[in-house]
Design brief:
The chain is of the alpha/beta class and 433 residues long. 37% of the residues lie in helices and 22% in strands. Helix 6 (199-208) runs parallel beside helix 8 (251-259) and helix 12 (384-402) runs antiparallel to helix 13 (411-432).
């Protein structure tokens, strides 16, 4: 990541801002400054974006780094501006609306995507990819039509196949109309199953489908008092035209199911799943739990706007995947940075009035501090899969070793872990020779 601006909490109304990371050396970049964070007063997105720029300008190194980043030429690669938002008051601000003269809305320029870094750091292990790329789409929001989002996914995977990506969609739904539409598509790569009627079974369905990318259309909210979650509608809910789904799944349950499957990305097409105004958002909490990247919605959004976003963002996302798979074939790893995929959808949604029609800023991307690395074993290399497995295992043991406190961990456990790390390193060096 080229630039990370960090906000660490002091109290409810203030934070310490610092330049956590920069692509160029900035004097005193790691020296923080306390700033008071107040609700924005601007009447439109431009005014609010200017307030955000003034807030950042109170920390000289951050302002200097942003000024340097915005001085790049038109033909340069995207340089994402990341905000690490450990302070809840800062997380609640619409950073996607950042406006800096003379550039305008930064997130609407392909050179400077904007995304957020989760407050809790997890190591993002490499992903060893073998086709097909699996999209799991849970399309089960009570009183909402999931067919347009299914059609958007079907159109996107058709285009991705032309680019050479083997990709399919597995749909989990309680909506009879969505199930019927899957049959109409008559695509062997698009399959469907009926959503279960209890939370444990639903997360098992998701895990069993082993998603590389999980797309969720449901209602955001609470699974229990004070417990953030997602609400899914069963077939019975759709047939009875219920306004809310009866299956409430906590964020922790979803995160636990996903951790074992190593997804690349989660897209939450549900209202307020990235709203951090009252508490850490669902999207933020999923990334805090170890999911590498999550896109959510910052506010209550009209379903048609969400449908349009899906139609616009999936061609971008799958192009990134197709490029990564092609570039990573046989090693080296290919890095995937999701933030640039949101620029084109935001531009399309903004139209000619980005200041007044600010729905383009509602999709919010949270990521881990490390980028996702993708590796595709080459069919011609008989040791490629073995190397990938050894790297994965070694990374697990090295991460585990870092968690061991030598003052409290039995010596035999430390010795066993150290011996296994040594063995794995030797085995990896042998197959890499």
């Amino acid at each position: 990541m080229g630039m990370i601006v960090a906000f660490n909490p002091v109290d409810k109304a203030s934070a310490m801002v610092s330049l956590f990371k920069s692509s160029v050396e900035i004097e005193d970049m790691d020296v923080p400054r306390r700033v008071v964070i107040k609700p924005l007063q601007g009447a439109d997105a431009k005014a609010r974006g200017e307030e955000l720029a003034r807030l950042l300008g109170r920390h000289r190194p951050t302002k200097q780094a942003i000024d340097q980043a915005l001085g790049v030429d038109a033909d340069t690669e995207p340089s994402t501006i990341y905000f690490r938002l450990a302070a809840p008051a800062a997380d609640a601000l619409p950073w996607e609306q950042l406006y800096v003269e003379p550039r305008g809305f930064i997130a609407l320029d392909a050179r400077w995507p904007i995304a957020r870094v989760a407050r809790r750091v997890h190591e993002v292990g490499q992903r060893t990819f073998e086709p097909p790329f699996r999209i799991v789409a849970v399309l089960s929001a009570a009183d909402r039509d999931g067919v347009p989002q299914l059609d958007a996914l079907a159109t996107a995977i058709a285009a991705a196949r032309v680019q050479g990506l083997q990709v399919g969609v597995h749909v989990i739904t309680g909506d009879p109309a969505v199930a019927a539409r899957v049959k109409e598509l008559a695509d062997p790569g698009v399959t469907v199953e009926t959503i279960a009627t209890d939370p444990v079974s639903v997360v098992r369905q998701i895990a069993a489908a082993r998603p590389h990318l999980l797309h969720v259309l449901c209602h955001g909210g609470y699974a229990a008092p004070g417990v953030m979650g997602l609400s899914f509608a069963t077939r019975r809910d759709f047939l009875s035209r219920a306004k809310t789904g009866r299956v409430a799944v906590s964020v922790d349950m979803v995160a636990a199911a996903l951790r074992s499957e190593d997804p690349w990305l989660v897209v939450l097409a549900a209202c307020e799943t990235a709203n951090a105004a009252a508490a850490p958002s669902i999207a933020h909490e999923l990334v805090n739990s170890g999911v590498p990247a999550v896109i959510g919605m910052r506010r209550v959004v009209d379903l048609s706007a969400t449908d349009a976003f899906c139609a616009r963002v999936y061609p971008e996302l799958l192009t990134m995947v197709a490029d990564a798979v092609a570039a990573a074939d046989g090693s080296p790893h290919h890095r995937i940075e999701w933030a640039p995929a949101l620029t084109a959808p935001r531009l399309a949604a903004a139209g000619g009035a980005p200041a007044s029609e600010d729905g383009w800023s509602d999709p919010v991307l949270y990521v881990q501090q490390e980028h996702l690395l993708v590796y595709t074993p080459a069919a011609a290399d008989p040791h490629a899969r073995e190397r990938a497995a050894l790297r994965d295992r070694l990374a697990e043991y090295e991460l585990f070793a870092k968690t061991l406190d030598p003052r409290s961990t039995p010596k035999e456990i430390i010795a066993t872990v150290t011996k296994e790390i040594t063995r794995l390193r030797k085995a990896l060096s042998e197959v890499e020779a």
